[in-house]
From TrEMBL:
GO molecular function: ABC-type quaternary ammonium compound transporting activity; ATP binding; ATP hydrolysis activity
Pfam family, one: ABC_tran
The keyword Translocase is annotated on this UniProt entry: yes
Reactions catalysed, as given in the entry: a quaternary ammonium(out) + ATP + H2O = a quaternary ammonium(in) + ADP + phosphate + H(+)
SMART domains on file: AAA
Keyword terms, alphabetized: ATP-binding, Nucleotide-binding, Translocase, Transport
Entries under InterPro entries matching the protein: AAA+_ATPase (IPR003593), ABC_transporter-like_ATP-bd (IPR003439), ABC_transporter-like_CS (IPR017871), ABC_transporter_ATP-bind (IPR050166), P-loop_NTPase (IPR027417)
Annotated protein name in UniProt: Carnitine transport ATP-binding protein OpuCA
Superkingdom of the organism of origin: Bacteria
Subunit comment: The complex is composed of two ATP-binding proteins (OpuCA), two transmembrane proteins (OpuCB and OpuCD) and a solute-binding protein (OpuCC).
Known EC number: 7.6.2.9
Length: 274
């Protein structure tokens, strides 16, 4: 059932000037041997240029599906994905993805992984070296350029994956639980690394997470999705000052956002179980 609350949240998240990314009335029905699953139904929201939006929602509500559709890796059954107001279909260099599982090429070094897309585009070696140096410094991996992925920790691999996505200069970065496989300590460090990279690059980011604290720490707005079929239940603007560092997690304001989001998620998760 589509609630009034969901319709209001979607309206709020699609208002204003032309968004960088718009998900417009997107539906997705998966057909399997066992029948059909409606993952998304008329799901709408948008992300403004340079905005960092995180998506939270109960398990199975369609978060990965909507992100994959935005990336062009999955085809929507209905509706549209618009970038700068223009409909797009299929993947494109305007969108970069970072997944939970490490997707580096094991046979390439760190530097070659970061500049792989640039090499495909025919960017000359000298320029590629320059770009690699810049991103290696940004992600704090100077000195590791000749290492192979197998020689890196999980956190280091994800830093390289982020650097590779940014080096291709996408307009939009789509991130699906990129820190989900990392231990809590590394995850905290990665959140700060990502914020630093975002503050420098000012990319538009759509980031899925299950972690409420992570969603608050990173975002300009947290979009909470309903139980499947996932729609936008509420847009929660995060008014914490930027730049942010870890001390903000101990603040009263942070705790208030956490309480609000936990109760929204709980409400939807209970619906998903019943
Ligand atoms: N390829 C597929 N074939 C069939 N059903 C699918 C497929 N991909 C996703 N689904 C179904 O669509 C629904 C939404 O899945 P999706 O992975 O997008 O949810 P999610 O919110 O990302 O879940 P989680 O939080 O558990 O990662 C689920 O019911 C899932 O089982």
């Amino acid at each position: 059932m589509v609630t009034k609350e969901a319709v209001k949240a979607e309206k709020e998240a699609t208002e204003g000037k032309t968004p960088k990314l718009e998900i417009k009335e997107v539906g997705k029905v998966f057909k399997t041997k066992k029948g059909e699953t409606t993952a998304l139904e008329k799901t709408s929201f948008s992300v403004s240029e340079g905005e960092f939006v995180t998506i939270l929602g109960p398990s199975g509500c369609g978060k990965s599906t909507v992100l994959r559709i935005a990336a062009g890796l999955e085809e929507a059954t209905s509706g549209q994905v618009l970038i700068d107001g223009k409909p797009v279909s299929g993947p494109g260099p305007d969108r970069g993805m970072v997944f939970q599982s490490y997707t580096l090429y094991p046979w390439l070094t760190v530097k070659e992984n970061i500049t792989f897309g640039l090499k495909l585009k025919g960017v000359p070696q000298r320029e590629r070296d320059h770009v690699a140096r810049h991103y290696l410094q940004l992600i704090g991996l100077e000195g590791f350029e000749k290492h192979y992925p197998v020689q890196l920790s999980g956190g280091m691999k994800q830093r390289v994956a982020i650097a590779r996505a940014l080096a291709n200069e996408p307009k939009i970065l789509l991130m699906d639980e990129p820190f989900g496989a990392l231990d809590a300590q590394t995850r905290n460090i990665m959140q700060e690394v990502l914020l630093k990279a975002w503050e420098e690059s000012k990319k538009t980011i759509l980031f899925i997470t299950h972690d409420v604290e992570e969603s608050i720490f990173l975002a300009d707005s947290v979009y909470v999705m309903t139980a499947r079929p996932g729609r936008l239940k509420k847009k929660v603007p995060i008014t914490l000052e930027r730049p942010r560092d870890f001390s903000v997690k101990g603040s009263v304001e942070f705790a208030q956002f956490k309480d609000e989001l936990l109760s929204l998620i709980r409400e939807e998760s209970l619906k998903a179980i019943h």
